[in-house]
């Protein structure tokens, strides 16, 4: 049976990790610009350390990224050479509305993305556009408190109306918020939320979550009104939790973790808050303020498909003390002794992707789209500049086989697959360049030094072959 004939193969990037040009053509400052490399990064991304301006003590990799702002034609041509059917990218909100609360957008920013989309269409590449990949204009953070404030709905709705109308006919696949559940784990990076001493952080996070969920429903409503061909998806940082042991308490701990992880998607795909979440709020004294019509909006405008990132599975136990921890996509979990790890300690579990696909599809019965999957690794060019990244080919081929099994043997409805960081870019978790994911090497180091020259890795031709055979030939030659 295999993948559908119109399966959307491609790759994914985020504006704040690749674009650069942070102060060009009228763009405003965003929360994601202020994420420095180094030991302060985690405290800042979690909203525990207030860091609202550049200083001389830190290095800010997002300022330049890989300078895709000036290289996008070259980069898209390379994507086309691999045979991409789709390219997932995101909009920098502050490029379109520099402060976020203006009534009129920045034409230079709108034109930049219009040119990117036209460049994609020139090669027959379908853009898959994330409206907000963690970006929040800093003016909205400083003046309104970002998503803790309901006024954000007005500004986000304005952004959506502008982009849906401007790019009608150029873009039909949209994602409302990237890894929306990351708001609970990295509030400043994910949503511009910074905490003051003594604040009830859980209350603030779930109030912000409600505002983003209503905003997502509004976006879905507007997208369908502007163009009935538009398809709108949600986006989850996924990876199923396994129980550490068969102890029923561990099984329950894993169940609870999965339930919390699906909280946002339950609302976006099913249209209502899960009963367990409402009970949990009551027990914790969390009072989420809702306006009349909010719940009806959530119920009426659910997403058309569900997209997610998958890098590894996770492990939960009722008593975690003393258990060794494994790193992950911001999430740390108990280490699984049956799995190998990447150089950054992320556990490698291809079968976990099949499990996650089945779990999400069984839960929601909506089409799925894997929009991030990949291996962060140190790539060392040979003396003649070649990069033999067989480790990446091995990782990706195993994961593609797992998703193929989910489609062929389990009946999962899968729309497409975009590998993360199809071209090397700045790591979201660490701010490093040496943690590379791409098929395309970018000559840039952790200190921002390098020529920015693009070159193909061994995996470039391998992925080209995978796409050309619609996933049938995963062999490495």
TrEMBL record:
Q: Which Gene3D superfamilies match?
A: Glycosidases
Q: Which InterPro entries match?
A: GH, GH_1_N_CS, Glyco_hydro_1, Glyco_hydro_1_AS
- Name a single GO biological process: carbohydrate catabolic process
UniProt keyword terms in alphabetical order: Glycosidase, Hydrolase
Q: Which residues cross the membrane?
A: none
What is the similarity comment for this entry?
Belongs to the glycosyl hydrolase 1 family.
Report the Pfam families cross-referenced here: Glyco_hydro_1
Name the species this protein comes from.
Vagococcus humatus
Its Gene Ontology molecular function terms?
beta-glucosidase activity
Please, which domain of life does this record's source organism belong to? Bacteria
Name the chain's protein.
6-phospho-beta-glucosidase
Q: Where is the active site?
A: 372
Which is a Gene Ontology cellular component entry for this protein?
A: cytosol
What high-level taxonomic lineage is stated for the organism?
Answer: Bacteria, Bacillati, Bacillota, Bacilli, Lactobacillales
């Amino acid at each position: 049976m295999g993948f559908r004939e119109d399966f959307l193969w491609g790759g994914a990037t985020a504006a704040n990790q690749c674009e650069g040009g942070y102060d060009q053509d009228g763009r405003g400052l965003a929360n994601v610009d202020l994420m420095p490399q180094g030991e302060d990064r985690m405290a800042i991304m979690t909203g525990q350390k207030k860091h609202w301006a550049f200083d001389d003590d830190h290095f800010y990799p997002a300022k330049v990224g890989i300078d895709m702002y000036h290289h996008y034609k070259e980069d898209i041509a390379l994507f086309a050479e691999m045979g991409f059917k789709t390219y997932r990218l995101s909009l920098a909100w502050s490029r379109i509305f520099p402060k976020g609360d203006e009534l009129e957008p920045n034409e230079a920013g709108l034109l930049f993305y219009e040119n990117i989309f036209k460049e994609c269409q020139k090669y027959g590449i379908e853009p898959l556009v994330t409206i907000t990949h963690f970006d929040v204009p800093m003016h909205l953070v400083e003046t309104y408190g970002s998503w803790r404030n309901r006024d954000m709905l007005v500004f986000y709705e304005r952004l959506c109306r502008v982009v849906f109308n401007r790019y009608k006919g150029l873009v039909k696949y949209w994602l409302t918020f990237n890894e929306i559940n990351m708001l609970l784990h990295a509030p400043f990076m994910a949503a511009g939320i910074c905490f003051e001493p003594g604040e009830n952080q859980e209350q603030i996070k779930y109030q912000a979550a409600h505002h983003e969920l209503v905003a997502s429903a509004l976006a879905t409503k507007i997208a369908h009104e502007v163009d009935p061909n538009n398809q709108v998806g949600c986006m989850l940082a996924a990876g199923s939790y396994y129980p550490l042991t068969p102890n029923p308490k561990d099984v329950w701990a894993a169940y609870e973790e999965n339930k919390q992880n699906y909280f946002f998607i339950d609302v976006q795909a099913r249209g209502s808050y899960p009963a367990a979440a409402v009970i949990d709020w009551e027990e914790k004294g969390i009072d989420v303020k809702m306006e009349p019509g909010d719940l009806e909006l959530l119920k009426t405008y659910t997403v058309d498909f569900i997209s997610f990132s998958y890098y590894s599975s996770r492990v939960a136990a009722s008593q975690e003390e003393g258990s060794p921890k494994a790193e992950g996509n911001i999430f740390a979990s108990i280490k699984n002794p049956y799995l190998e790890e990447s150089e950054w300690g992320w556990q490698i579990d291809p079968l976990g992707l099949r499990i996650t696909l089945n779990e999400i599809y069984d839960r929601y019965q909506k089409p799925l789209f894997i929009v991030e999957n990949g291996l962060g690794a140190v790539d060392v060019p040979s003396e003649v500049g070649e990069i033999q990244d067989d480790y990446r080919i091995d990782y990706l081929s195993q994961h593609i086989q797992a998703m193929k099994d989910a489609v062929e043997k389990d009946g999962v409805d899968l729309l497409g697959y975009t590998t993360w960081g199809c071209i090397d870019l700045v790591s979201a978790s660490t701010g490093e360049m040496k943690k590379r994911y791409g098929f395309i090497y970018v000559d840039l180091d952790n200190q921002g030094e390098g020529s920015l020259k693009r070159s193909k890795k061994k995996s470039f031709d391998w992925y080209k072959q995978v796409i050309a055979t619609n996933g049938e030939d995963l062999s490495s030659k």
